[in-house]
Design brief:
The complex is a heterodimer of chains A (about 475) and B (about 220).
Chain A lengths: L1 H20 L8 H24 L2 E4 L3 E3 L1 H21 L10 H20 L3 H19 L4 H33 L9 H6 L6 H19 L7 H8 L2 H30 L2 H22 L5 H22 L2 H32 L10 H4 L1 H14 L6 H15 L3 H26 L12 H16 L8 H10 L5
Antiparallel strand pairs in A: 1-2
Helix pairs in contact in A: 1-2, 1-4, 2-3, 2-4, 3-4, 3-10, 3-13, 3-18, 3-19, 4-5, 4-10, 5-6, 5-10, 6-8, 6-9, 8-10, 9-10, 9-12, 10-12, 10-13, 11-12, 11-17, 12-13, 12-16, 12-17, 13-15, 13-16, 13-18, 13-19, 15-17, 15-18, 16-17
Chain B lengths: L2 H24 L3 H25 L5 H27 L11 H23 L5 H4 L1 H17 L3 H23 L4 H29 L13
Helix pairs in contact in B: 1-2, 1-6, 2-3, 2-7, 3-7, 3-8, 4-6, 6-7, 7-8
The chains are: A mainly alpha (about 475), B mainly alpha (about 220).
């Protein structure tokens, strides 16, 4: 079983090596898709293995997979398959340096896997910093000044934020007073939470969450996100919005579990609730006047990260299980939407919302899934996001966070109205039918992702055990 | 190592760290600022060795060597190369005058000591006592990021911030395990190299590397 953990770390490296060897070959685009599929398979395999016989350890103190890591691995794999398969550029649009592009994508997948399977806190930090490094040139790979500006802001803010998180990690290790060879691991921190120095743990937790929240795109540290996610090529935007944010959020969940066990849940609850509500407010304020549809999607990601933060602040089995399911639902839909946005911009030649009209008539193959995906993002039933959002809000009310939930509902309604208005302006209206429907295997991942997120809400009951086990890995009910 | 020597060495190295950071806020020459960064790296390596050796860590000299090579040689050299490639040797005219910048730096150092006091507590360990220096380095790094416009100085500010974090980590926990230190140094090096490439591209595209001119993307 331990070998299963090493596969998602070594396979992307191997694939990246092949990509660098054939820098101009178009077929290298298949390599990251293979890595992503392997990641999904390993994730599912590990979920089953963990359920059967408990957490799997590959290297004691360094690499370990529990129910939460396994769930996140499967989510990253599933979303990456959609983003990379659907977002693979057509031959005429692909750049000359396609091999290096796919190699970086592979390294990016490897870095995310490492962050998820790392038991050592320092190692997880290194992996999260690696995700910034591997995506830097992917964001900058667009044309002209804008992508360079976006990449500059992304790397500077990402690096500074993650550096602050390093301060938290170092202080957390100081708080544990450990002088062991391997430093602190999540397992040892959770086991000895009661012996941690409380003052230092509070400071460490706050700094670490602040740092990783920058990477997760939570307000008020979100300013890089709309730029980077709107300038990156479609598969990269899909991956960054769909899973990279969630990987950073996974780090926050781990930190939260440790600080909650050591000093009680109040600190993290306040921090995450504030960041979550602020993220919803920022999105609500900016979607109404947004003129670029890729930025609109990026702001929607801030909104969903805010919802996750609110869910984590509420805590408890219902809210946390909903948060984990929401990560999957949002990831699938958001990566689909970025893939579609990339195709729309290829077809229309513009990122502007007022440059696209009557998409349902002009290109029904793009308009219909774009409208459906938007419904998913906004939390319409039958999409899974409807069930998870309702579960988070209900859990909040039952835990006595009444006014916060009321405020969240109001802000969600504003976001709902804003995004719906913009997307309806793009999809409805008259237009002349255009050709250009992609081949079936390019439409398949879009359909699969939308179908999965639509039936997931009803078919969630087989997942209940998996989700509850993952919640249990965070120290159980608080 | 006797307690007295240890105390003196910690005081000297942290003193050099703080002094170089203040001088970086004061000066306007990029080359000199990069030189100060190299001195800062050496002081950090000295601190890492002192604290590690005192705590009886077997890997102290190895960690110190990594820090010395990375922070005092490789990173400054990479910055110098980017500065040469872009032909920028002096900071671009700033929005604030130098006096305000220095008063700000002094204020931030003061804040670092106020914030750091609860962490120090009544711990007699000289390493713990020096913690506020690390915090002030972090704040001074932020200050450089805020007040300077040239992309290279932004990189210097980021590295000062990173040095401050390393200082705190050495003083508070006598460092993280070797593998993590190595990984972290490599990450910082890669970030600086990537940003160095961006600076050169920026220079080619717009003829300067003033980051306040980066305002194409907004809502």
């Amino acid at each position: 079983m331990a070998a299963l953990i090493l596969l998602p770390l070594t396979l992307p490296l191997l694939m990246a090596g092949i990509g660098f060897l054939f820098p101009k070959a178009y077929w290298t685009l298949a390599l990251p898709i293979i890595s992503a599929a392997a990641l999904l398979a390993v994730g599912v395999g590990l979920i089953i293995a963990v359920q059967a016989s408990g957490p799997v350890v590959a290297v004691p103190g360094w690499l370990r997979v529990d129910a939460l890591s396994a769930w996140m691995l499967a989510v990253v794999g599933a979303v990456a398959v959609v983003a990379l398969w659907g977002g693979a550029p057509v031959r005429s649009k692909s750049k000359a340096s396609v091999g290096s592009f796919t190699a970086l994508l592979n390294l990016f997948l490897g870095a995310m896997s490492l962050a998820l399977v790392a038991d050592n806190v320092g190692l997880m930090w290194v992996a999260i910093e690696l995700t910034t490094i591997t995506t830097a040139f992917l964001v900058a790979s667009g044309e002209g000044r804008n992508s360079l500006e976006a990449a500059w802001k992304y790397v500077v803010l990402g690096a500074v934020g993650v550096a602050i998180a390093f301060l938290g990690v170092a202080l957390l290790s100081a708080a544990s007073g450990s002088h062991s060879e391997t430093g602190v691991s999540w397992t040892s921190l959770m086991a000895h939470a009661a012996t941690l120095d409380p003052a230092m743990t509070k400071l460490a937790g706050a700094l670490a969450v602040l740092g990783f929240a920058t990477k997760a795109g939570l307000a008020p540290m979100h300013s890089w996100l709309p730029d980077a996610h709107s300038q990156a090529p479609a598969p990269v935007s899909g991956l960054m919005s769909g899973v990279l944010l969630s990987v950073a959020f996974y780090a926050i969940l781990r930190i939260q579990a440790v600080t909650d066990a050591a000093v009680g849940p109040e600190l993290m609850r306040t921090l995450l609730m504030t960041a979550g509500l602020l993220s919803l407010a920022v999105t609500a304020g900016l979607v109404l006047t947004q003129s670029d549809y890729k930025r609109l999607l990026a702001y929607s990601s801030i909104e969903h990260m805010g919802l996750l933060a609110i869910g984590a602040a509420i805590g408890g089995e219902l809210a946390m299980a909903a948060v984990l399911l929401h990560i999957l639902g949002h990831g699938l839909i958001k990566s689909t939407m970025f893939v579609l946005a990339g195709r729309i911009s290829d077809a229309s030649g513009t990122h502007r919302i007022d440059g696209v009209q009557g998409l349902l008539r002009v290109r029904p193959d793009l308009g219909a899934p774009f409208l459906l995906g938007t419904a998913g993002l906004l939390g319409f039933p039958p999409f899974v996001t409807f069930f998870t959002e309702v579960a988070i809000i209900v859990a909040g009310f039952t835990r006595g966070l009444g006014w916060q939930m009321a405020l969240a509902c109001v802000l969600l309604l504003v976001v709902f109205a804003g995004i719906a208005r913009q997307v309806l302006a793009m999809t409805l209206g008259a237009g002349v039918r255009q050709q250009g429907r992609p081949v079936w295997w390019r439409r398949l991942p879009i359909g699969l992702a939308l179908l999965t997120s639509a039936v997931l809400g009803f078919a969630a009951w087989p997942l209940a055990g998996t989700l509850l086990a993952a919640v249990g890995a965070l120290g159980g009910v608080r | 190592m006797s307690q007295e020597v240890f105390q003196q060495l910690v005081a000297t190295t942290t003193g050099v760290l703080l002094l170089t950071a203040i001088l970086q806020v004061w000066g306007r020459s990029l080359v000199r600022s990069i030189g100060l960064l190299a001195v800062q790296g050496a002081a950090l390596a000295g601190l890492a060795f002192t604290v590690g050796f005192h705590a009886g860590e077997p890997q102290a000299s190895l960690v110190a060597l990594i820090v010395l090579v990375m922070k005092s040689v490789v990173l400054p050299a990479a910055l110098l190369r980017s500065a040469r490639l872009t032909g920028e040797t002096r900071e671009r005219p700033a929005a604030l005058n130098p006096a305000v910048e220095l008063i700000g730096a002094a204020g931030l150092t003061l804040i670092a000591y106020i914030v750091g006091t609860p962490l120090v507590g009544d711990n007699p360990d000289p390493a713990r006592q020096a913690l506020p220096v690390g915090i002030s380095l972090v704040l001074l790094g932020f200050w450089l990021l805020l007040i300077r416009r040239s992309a290279i100085t932004q990189l210097i500010g980021f590295l000062v911030l990173d040095n401050g974090i390393a200082t705190v980590s050495f003083l508070a926990s006598s460092g993280l395990p070797l593998t993590v230190e190595l990984g972290a140094s490599l990450d910082v090096l890669l970030v600086v190299l990537i940003l160095g490439v961006f600076v050169v591209r920026m220079q080619r595209q717009q003829g300067h590397s003033d980051i306040t001119e980066l305002k194409e993307l907004h809502d």
